[in-house]
Amino acid sequence: MANNLDTSSVTFVACQECDLLHRHATLPPKGVARCVRCGAFLYRQAPSDSNERALALALTACILFVIANIYPIFGLEVQGTHTSTTLFGAVESLWDDNSRAVATLVFFTTIFVPAAELIGLTWVLVVLRSGSQGWGAVPILHFIERVKPWGMVEVFLLGVLVSLVKLAHIAIIEPGMALFTFGALMVFIAASAASFDADAAWVQLEAVN
Amino acid sequence: MNPAPITARIGLLACEVCRLVSRAPSTGDVAHCPRCGAALHTRKPASLVRTWAFLIAAMILYVPANVLPIMDTSSLFGTQNDTILSGIAFLWTSGSYVLAMVVFFASVLVPLLKMIALAILAGSVQMGSVRYRRTRTRLYRLIEFAGRWSMLDIYVVTILVALVQVSTLASIHAGPGAAAFGAVVVLTMFSATSFDPRLIWDTQEEAS
Ligand SMILES: [Zn+2]
Ligand SMILES: [Zn+2]
Predict the structure, then answer these.
(1) Strands (E), chain B
(2) How far, rounded to the nearest angstrom, does the alpha carbon of residue B20 sit from its chain's CA centroid?
(3) Which of B84, B159, B193 to mutate to test the interface with A (most CBs of A within 10 A)?
(4) Among A96, A180, B55, B98, which lies 20 to 30 A Cα-Cα from B117?
(5) CB-count exposure of residue A21 (10 Å: 0-12, 13-18, 19+)
């Protein structure tokens, strides 16, 4: 505890991009503090119910994630032959096609990371809501922070659209359930991440432990 | 104007995960964040060396990524090897101008500009440049955000392989260019996360 800065009187915020030290000031509702030197985001005044909202959005995204992965993305009809694929099915074909490195990369960025991020965030938000000891919340937040840049659902969705156009020349396309679900999933993942008030979460976790 | 306070100068360390600012330990031990337990560093360890290493590897692989076929198509009409550029040309000639531009931006321009930008950032820090610091910080923010869009063509190949492989008309396989391309995206992302933007501003204090 001797290493702890006296946070009761003055709280400091260091800019993550230029290291300039700022005093933490109270902001108006929905206010955002930016670094005076480099303009980087410092902190914001999130609405008090933002983590409640983040939980609702994350739970919805979890359901959408399951649907998006169960149903085919789209189907294809070429001269009477019908084929369709799910995301995982596509990863499997790549793997069987001996493109294992690429298959792993696709699995990691479109299935594993989004799933881990969603489940992890949901769990942390449930823990925070219950106000309990917070089992696993700290390592999970570390993990989310680290893998976040690797979740690429929105890039994947654009990739699906490009493939649709490429295939439209040679086959009849039937959009699948998962195509629309992926669109919604992208929106809900972004919205829950944007609502999540990490600063409030850390303060609460520190108080509990 | 007073020189801006730098956390390290006044014995403070900022946590990169939970952002708590705490006092650095006086002993030589590795410091850990009192709130979340993450290891604390004044600056990202070996930032420039790691940035350069990942960047150079990415630059080398950028050549096979663009030269080798990303996709092999075999049909009744013969075999066709598509590189990233020929895929863009196909989209363009078939009238999908918008998508051709999107793929060109995501697959060719973004990785290229990202590598150039990282080289500028790492190089200017190494030379102790004090110019355009705010612009360089903004550039760093931009490349962190934009790099992921280069994965686009990998996803296109994935879907085409899965859907067309089983059809009777043609079969599509991922080419060696796909692995090289994926590696370029991964390596540039590692390079960007290794770079510590705070190094851009450290030069100011030395100059004043
Ligand atoms: Zn700053
Ligand atoms: Zn911390």
Answers:
(1) 12-14, 21-23, 31-32, 39-40, 71-75, 78-82, 170-174
(2) 27
(3) B159
(4) B98
(5) middle
* Residues with C-beta atoms within 5 A of ion ligand 2: B 15, 17-18, 20, 33, 35-36, 38
Three-state secondary structure along B21-33?
A: EEECCCCCCCEEC
- For chain B, the straight-line distance linking the first and the last C-alpha, in angstroms and rounded, comes to 11
Listed in sequence order, the DSSP H helices in chain A are 50-70, 87-96, 100-107, 113-130, 137-147, 153-168, 177-195, 198-208
- Answer whether B154 sits within 8 Å of A141, measured CB to CB: no
Give the pLDDT band of residue A3 (cuts 50, 70, 90).
very low
pLDDT tens-digit series, residues B170-181: 788 899 999 999
| Beta strands, E only, B92-176 | 170-174
Confidence of residue B34 (pLDDT cuts 50, 70, 90): confident
Work out whether the CA dihedral A135, A138, A143, A145 comes out positive or negative.
positive
- CA–CA dist B197, B208 (Å, integer): 19
The 3-class SS string of A92-128 reads: HHHHHCCCHHHHHHHHHHHHHHHHHHHHHHHHHHHHH
Does B187 score more than 90 pLDDT? yes
Mean pLDDT value of segment A117-134: 89
Give the Cα separation of B162 and B133 in Å (integer): 47
The percentage of chain A sitting over the pLDDT mark of 70, rounded to a whole number, equals 94
How far is A67 from A63, CA to CA, in rounded Å? 6
Question: Average pLDDT, whole number, for chain B?
Answer: 87
Contact A37, A18 (CB under 8 A): yes
ipTM of the prediction: 0.89
| Top-ranked range on mean pLDDT: pick from B25-29, B32-36, B77-81, B123-127 | B123-127
Q: How far is the CA of A55 from the centre of ligand 2 (A)?
A: 23
As a whole number of angstroms, the distance between CA B153 and CA B130 comes to 38
**Distance, C-alpha B32 to centroid of its chain:** 28
Q: Which amino acid is at B20?
A: L
Residue boundaries of the structural domains of chain B: 1-42, 47-204
pTM for the model: 0.90
What is the C-alpha R_g of chain B?
A: 22
Instruction: Give the mutation candidate from B13, B40, B163 for the A interface (greatest A CB count, under 10 A).
Output: B163
